[in-house]
Amino acid sequence: MEYLLHILVLVGIYTTLSVSLDLLAGYTGLLSIAHAAFYGLGAYTSALLAVNLGAPFLVGVLAGMTVAALVSFVVSLPSLRLHDDYFVIATFGSQMILFSLFNNWIDLTRGPLGIPGIPPPVMFGWTVQSHFEFVLLTAVLAGFTYLVVSSIATSPFGRVLRAIREDEVFAQAMGKNTLYFKVSAFAVSAALAASAGSLYAHYITYIDPTSFTVMESILVISMVIIGGAGSRWGPVIGAVVLVTLPEALRFLGLPIGVAANLRQIIYGILLVLMMMFRPQGLVGRYGFGR
Fold it and tell me: Is a pLDDT exceeding 60 seen at residue 290?
C-alpha cells in the first residue's frame, strides 16, 4: 500500500511539472529543455532555507518560485529572441549551466554530496509525514497548477499565446508585444515547476544534482508530447502513463541495472512512435511534427 501511495505522489509531482511545461511548449509553442533546472531551483531554495534557517515550508515554496521566476527572466530574455531549434539549443545550454551550479557550488549546495535532513512540510500546525498525507498535498499542488494553466489558457492572454504558437509574425502585426507574452509565460511555467521541486525536496528529505539533469527535462517533455501538447488533460495523462508504466518492470524480476536501462528505452520508443504516427499525442490537438 505504501508503494502505491509513493507512486501516486510521484504522479502528482510529475503532473505539476508536465502541466507547467505545457503552458510553454503546448500553448506558446516553445520547447524548453531547461524545465528540470527550474525544478531544481525550487528544490534547492526550499531545502537550503529549511535546513540552514529553519524556514517554514510555505516560505520555502514561495521563495523557490520567486527565484525560479527571476532566473527565468535572465534565461528567457536572450533565448526568446531566437526561434525554433535555436531556442531549444539555448534552453539546453541554460539547463547545463544551472546543473553545473548545483553540482559545483560546493559551499552552497554541497555539490555531489547533496543536502540531507530536509524536514517534512509543516503548514498551519499540520506536519505532513505519512504517504497518504503527501498524496493529498501533491494532489492540491497539481490541482492548483492545473487551474492556473487552464485559467491562463482560456483568458485573452492565453489566446495571444496560441496566436504566437501558430504565427508569431501575424501576432506582432496585430500589435502584440510577443516578447512580453513569451517572457511572462516562461516565468509562470518556471515558478510552477519550482513549486514541484520544493515539494519533492521535502518529500524525499534528500536532494542532489542527479535529480535535475537534462534527462529529467526530456522526461517531462516526453510526458507533454505523449499525452498531448496544448490540451487540458494531455500532460496529466502523459504523467500518469510515463510514471506508472515503467514501474510495472519491477514486477518482472529484472535486475535493477537492466530495469533502469529498459525504462529509458521505453521512454525513447514511445516518444519516437508518437512523433512518427501521432505527433499531437494521445489527446492533444497541437503536434510538434507539423
Answer: no
81: its cell numbers: 529572441
pLDDT at 191: 96
Mean residue pLDDT of the chain comes to 87
Helix (H, G, I), strand (E, B) or coil at 182: helix
Q: Tell me the β-bridge partners of 122.
A: 127
Which H/E stretch holds residue 122?
strand 122-123
Q: Given this model, what pLDDT does residue 149 score? A: 94
CA distance to 192, 194, 251, 278, per residue, from 55 (Å)? 20, 17, 40, 46
103 burial level (CB within 10 Å; 0-12, 13-18, 19+):
middle
Query: Which ranges constitute the DSSP H helices of the chain?
Result: 2-25, 35-53, 57-79, 85-104, 106-109, 131-153, 156-166, 168-173, 178-204, 214-227, 234-247, 256-277
Residue 151, judged by CB atoms within 10 A of its CB (0-12, 13-18, 19+), counts as exposed
Cα dist from 107 to 18, 47, 113, 227, whole Å: 32, 14, 11, 40
Convert the pLDDT of each residue in 85-114 to its tens digit. Answer: 788 888 899 999 999 999 999 989 998 999
Q: Minimal CA–CA distance to 187: which of 70, 25, 15?
A: 70
- For residue 70, give the C-alpha cell: 527571476
| CA 228/CA 216 separation, integer angstroms | 18
pTM beyond 0.85: yes
- From residue 279, give the alpha-carbon distance in Å to each of 232, 283, 285: 16, 10, 9
